[in-house]
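Risk register update: the risk of archive-format incompatibility is retired. Evidence:
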Amino acid sequence: MNLRLGELVQRRGRARRLKDVQDVALVQPRVETTPMVVEMSKPAFADFYRATFTEMTRLAFLLTGSIETAHDLVQDSFVRVHGRWDRIAEPRAYLRRTVVNACRSHHRRLRVQRRHSATTRVEDVDLGADEMIDAIAALPYRQRAAIILRFWHDSSQAEIAAALGCRPGTVGSLIYRALAELRKAMP
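Archived output:
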């Protein structure tokens, strides 16, 4: 099912989830042979989508640890950005902040679900995962987000502070504490 993002948003209205789309990451724009009247913001958003989707999916994957969840959260973020497209001054920063907030909300929902389903125990299975990824996953969310944004996403302290909603000095502290925890965890 090949649909453009704008068509998805139109079909679903203001819906927050796009579950009926299998993999929007692979959506390629259709080449139209008939002339169309297109709003000025639509091509700009489509170009923005193509240019930033992979980067934002990588960011969400590093923050959540799940590619499926990352795709869902990034799609939700693009839908939110599309609704405000004409009013956004810095779309890339706005989208990054939206993705980070979506990941934070996802972790909050998981925490609440775990708290309420504490009676159900699932046996842990060792998959032989990379030690560094495991150590980063064990960090508190803000420290993990600061480390990922700094070292994998090459963001400055000011950009990280804007994404996390804190001061730049706090970012330095978060990174320092996270690195200290990682040093303890790694032999």
